[in-house]
Amino acid sequence: MAQKTYEEERKHLEQCVPKLFKGSGVPNKSYREIVIKFEGANLQNYANLAKALEIYCWPSNTKKTGSVTDPFVDGGPERGKVEGLWRFTSVDPTHSRTEGLFLTLREGYASAIQWDEARVPSRDILPQTDNVPIEAGVSNTEEDYIDIIFPNVDPEKSADMAEAFLALATVTAPTIWTHVYSGIYHILRSRVREEQDGSHSIVGVLARPRSFVKTYDNYNSHNAADVYYLHHVPKLIVQSILDNGAYKTDGASATLNYSTERGTYDIVIRTGVDDPITIINKKTQDGCLTEIYSDFYYGITKTALDAISIGNAPQGWIYDIVGISPAANGRFNVRVDRVEAQPKTAPEYTSNMTSSRVTLTQEKKNQELTQDVGVAEQGIIKKIRSIINRFCVYDSVEDSTTSTPWEVNFTIAGVDGNEIHTVKGNQREILYDPPASGSVHSLTGWSRNEDGTYNWHLVETVDQFASETTSYWFFKTTKDQVVILRKPINGKQYQAQIRVYLWKYESKYFKTEDAAYLWLRENDNLWASSGVNVRGKTRFTAHRIKLETDFGWQNDGGPFSGE
């Protein structure tokens, strides 16, 4: 559901006549205040009209803001203008015993904390679990959190105002706008927020955080303790609570958890007195090779801990203090193990290793009556290694290597075609698709592995036909194109000349002979010669040549003798 904008109410207020109902300075205050009554306002819709003024401050403002510049009253913009910046303070249905829609404005931005201008966008109230005080002399019947906003703050004064608000620490029975909130509230946090109209707001949290629960740990045991859960404790009083003699007793412990969202701590305090418990010679493990007997000491003092001696272990035994841990109230829990060797069968265990070509499974078996490697399977190699232990049975390690099929594909491009190579290994069979038209398959090699699988290499040869004509230039001369001029040089020597032609040669590959001749017949009059060569069953080469340029007679570069 879309949020209501109160645009219709704002337009209605634009049609009303604002009248200056009251205007004066406020004694002992640093601000001026005016009260404006909107004549003609539909009071049956008062709640929505008041909300529209809270959002827009003034009917002519089309965007959310907490202030108005140069509002006009009593006769319009020219005669009734109230110059300056005025901030929203409140909307009331009555003023001085007069009913109507009354808007209170104060001059300029707020430069100090004004509780009657504050707003409460949300409030959380929780029931109290127990009326036990967290600190002396303070007790609540409910847990209470108030989100508070001080709007229309001077941006140049906002930082100082936020610090001043936080420095209050507590506030008693604050009057926020027109409502009185009874009780003592802690100020948990304060921050500055910039609004869309350029003003600042001071945003804070007031709280009466008094959640208190007393529980217990290990009731009626050696490790019994009273546990106090103190939730949402204000930061300023945390240390005084921790130092309180009711909680800070011998052996007591306290832990904290800080909430940055609320600026409070959760405290857990444990107190109590332990009665030591001792359990001697308890069998705690019966294994295949060992048995363990344990002594347990719960809640003993540091002196009693120092007095514990594990003694000297006889042959076949190991004595070990396996654990010392703190208990409540500065006591300790201790465990002493005595381990005796036992000639029993150990449980089986396995380990695995996987590579790109094989998977190795290793299984260790202790004290087996027989050794059996099993039946051979394709793709699996089994090996067993055994020794006879002191009990005359087998301790074995069985390796099972399972080959993993693999494949490599690559293509080699040649002048006359492509070679597509498929190399496969560890295959359970030699299997491949028949060749396509225009392709030839060749099995260049295969082998059989120790585990009965196959390795093989398939080459597929595919004709590679050029998509475009291959062209190049070259010079061509013939014998009858050579003319000897009888030009005397030093008596009887003559200069040779050669006539030079520039020819263009084109060739192209085709799958059929008809296609090759069809290409040759293109622009027949331009080509001096052409032909088709058979290169294979489905492969033909066509070529054609034409004269491009006649360079005329050219000197061959050197004199010679002759007639």
The residue-averaged pLDDT reads: 78
Whole-angstrom Rg: 51 Å
Number of beta-strand segments: 33
Q: Which structural class fits the helix and strand makeup?
A: mainly beta
Count every helix, treating DSSP H or I runs of 4 or more residues as helices: 6
Largest sheet: 5 strands, antiparallel
Query: How large a portion of the residues is in β-strands, by DSSP E?
Result: over 45%
Query: How many distinct folded domains?
Result: 6
Shape: flat
The span between the termini is 113 Å
Percent helix, as a range, is: under 10%
Oligomeric status:
single chain
Q: Strands of the largest sheet, in order across it?
A: 1-2-5-4-3
Task: Describe the secondary-structure layout.
Blueprint: H1 7-14, E1 17-25, E2 32-39, H2 46-56, E3 67-69, E4 85-95, E5 98-107, E6 119-127, E7 142-153, H3 158-167, E8 170-172, E9 175-176, E10 179-180, E11 184-194, E12 200-208, E13 211-217, E14 225-234, H4 238-242, E15 253-259, E16 264-271, E17 277-286, E18 290-300, H5 302-307, E19 317-326, E20 332-341, E21 349-354, E22 358-368, E23 380-388, E24 394-403, E25 406-413, E26 417-427, E27 439-448, E28 454-463, E29 470-476, E30 482-484, E31 494-510, H6 513-520, E32 529-536, E33 539-560
Structure, described:
This protein is mostly beta strands. The protein folds into six domains: 7-108, no CATH class; 112-273, no CATH class; 277-341, no CATH class; 349-403; 406-463, no CATH class; 470-560, no CATH class. Helix content is 9%, strand content 52%. The protein is built from six helices and 33 strands. It has helices spanning 7-14, 46-56, 158-167, 238-242, 302-307, 513-520; strands at residues 17-25, 32-39, 67-69, 85-95, 98-107, 119-127, 142-153, 170-172, 175-176, 179-180, 184-194, 200-208, 211-217, 225-234, 253-259, 264-271, 277-286, 290-300, 317-326, 332-341, 349-354, 358-368, 380-388, 394-403, 406-413, 417-427, 439-448, 454-463, 470-476, 482-484, 494-510, 529-536, 539-560. The strands form eight sheets. Strands 1-2-5-4-3 form a five-stranded antiparallel beta sheet. The chain has a five-stranded antiparallel beta sheet with strand order 6-7-12-11-8. The chain is flat, with a radius of gyration of 51 Å. It starts with 6 loop residues before the first helix and ends with a strand.
